[in-house]
Amino acid sequence: MKKDTLYKVLRIVRIANNVSQAQVASKIKLSKSYFCEIENGKRSTSDLEMLEKLAKHYNLKLVQLVQLAEYYDEMECDDFKKYRLTLMQTLEMISSNLD
User: Fold this and answer.
1) Cα–Cα distance between 82 and 78 in angstroms, integer?
2) Residue 70 — very low, low, confident or very high, per pLDDT cuts 50/70/90?
3) CB within 8 A of 37, min separation 6: which ones?
4) Which CATH superfamily is domain 5-98 in?
5) Rounded to an integer, what is the distance from CA 34 to the centroid of its chain?
6) Its pTM surpasses 0.85
7) How far apart are CA 58 and CA 14, in angstroms?
8) 43-65 per-position pLDDT tens digit
9) Could you give the CA distance from residue 81 to residue 85 in angstroms, rounded to a whole number?
């Protein structure tokens, strides 16, 4: 997976859930500026505990979040808006692959 794919997916999932950076940051107990830096790729997403909190906040499993990033990475496109499936379709596809 490309380094910046997970950052982009975190932003896509947040927007699809219609919540602000401030709302998510508050819920998972991060400062808004720190969360903003994560979404913009200026902070690492290697903290598994933080990723688990984010996944849980979006009602996802961590593996689904990672698989979503891998899926977008495989598409090899930078224009997610142009090429992405709807979030629900993508998550359904990933969930069915987990079974």
Assistant:
1) 9
2) confident
3) 43
4) lambda repressor-like DNA-binding domains (1.10.260.40)
5) 15
6) no
7) 8
8) 887 788 888 999 999 888 898 88
9) 9
